[in-house]
Automatic annotation (TrEMBL):
<feature type="transmembrane region" description="Helical">
    <location>
        <begin position="128"/>
        <end position="157"/>
    </location>
</feature>
<keyword id="KW-0472">Membrane</keyword>
<dbReference type="GO" id="GO:0004671">
    <property type="term" value="F:protein C-terminal S-isoprenylcysteine carboxyl O-methyltransferase activity"/>
</dbReference>
<dbReference type="Pfam" id="PF04140">
    <property type="entry name" value="ICMT"/>
</dbReference>
<dbReference type="InterPro" id="IPR007269">
    <property type="entry name" value="ICMT_MeTrfase"/>
</dbReference>
<keyword id="KW-0812">Transmembrane</keyword>
<protein>
    <submittedName>
        <fullName>Uncharacterized protein</fullName>
    </submittedName>
</protein>
<feature type="transmembrane region" description="Helical">
    <location>
        <begin position="37"/>
        <end position="56"/>
    </location>
</feature>
<dbReference type="InterPro" id="IPR052527">
    <property type="entry name" value="Metal_cation-efflux_comp"/>
</dbReference>
<feature type="transmembrane region" description="Helical">
    <location>
        <begin position="68"/>
        <end position="89"/>
    </location>
</feature>
<keyword id="KW-1133">Transmembrane helix</keyword>
<dbReference type="GO" id="GO:0016020">
    <property type="term" value="C:membrane"/>
</dbReference>
<feature type="transmembrane region" description="Helical">
    <location>
        <begin position="6"/>
        <end position="25"/>
    </location>
</feature>
Length: 185
């Protein structure tokens, strides 16, 4: 089961590196920014959830001494699915992906291919699934609740803000897109 623990941490570090790259290192050079504030609200809610999850000594002592068992394997599988979904969403958007809510000014194009043909927010869906995977792996009620609830609230909020801005920007095109897709899985 030690290999499973390494797999868990490998997926977590890949996820952190991916999010650090897209949220901090990647530039918004060609984007018209429609809204920035929600990014900081998301970061604040996620950090609050993570802090509240890992703060209890009962969680930390249990996590350090617990064998990596079936629930951790299930959590790792769910986490991996979420991270892969987020990664695929970012790849699908390509240059259209931005940490702020924005559009590529030169093209003003609504991306509706790949995952976006079925789900309007596959990147946020991937994040929510990944945090659910952490909650399952943690197997500690308060910690699992905080690590899942705060980020989920953050991404639902962000999706609502983004939908409003995209509706303002694309109008009827976005309304039609919304009718034939789901917000999340």
């Amino acid at each position: 089961m030690e290999l499973a623990r390494y797999l868990f941490w490998g997926v977590v570090f890949f996820w952190w590196a991916l999010d650090f790259y897209v949220l901090v290192l990647r530039k918004n050079g060609y984007h018209k920014i429609l809204e920035k504030r929600s990014k900081y609200i998301i970061i604040g809610l996620i950090l609050t959830g993570v802090f509240l999850a890992v703060a209890p000594e009962s969680f930390r002592s249990t996590w350090r001494s617990r064998e990596f068992g079936v629930m951790q394997l299930i959590g790792t599988a769910v986490l991996t699915i979420g991270v892969i979904l987020r990664f695929m969403a970012i790849l699908t958007l390509g240059k259209h992906f931005t940490p702020d809510i924005g559009i590529v000014e030169q093209e003003k194009k609504l991306v509706t291919k790949g995952l976006y043909s079925k789900i309007r927010h596959p990147s946020y869906t991937g994040e929510i699934i990944a945090f659910l995977g952490l909650a399952i792996a943690f197997q500690h009620f308060p910690s699992s609740f905080f690590i899942f609830a705060f980020p989920t609230i953050a991404f639902i909020y962000r999706a609502i803000v983004e939908e409003k801005k995209l509706l303002e920007e694309f109008g009827e095109i976005y309304l039609e897109y919304r009718k034939r897709t789901r917000m999340f899985i």
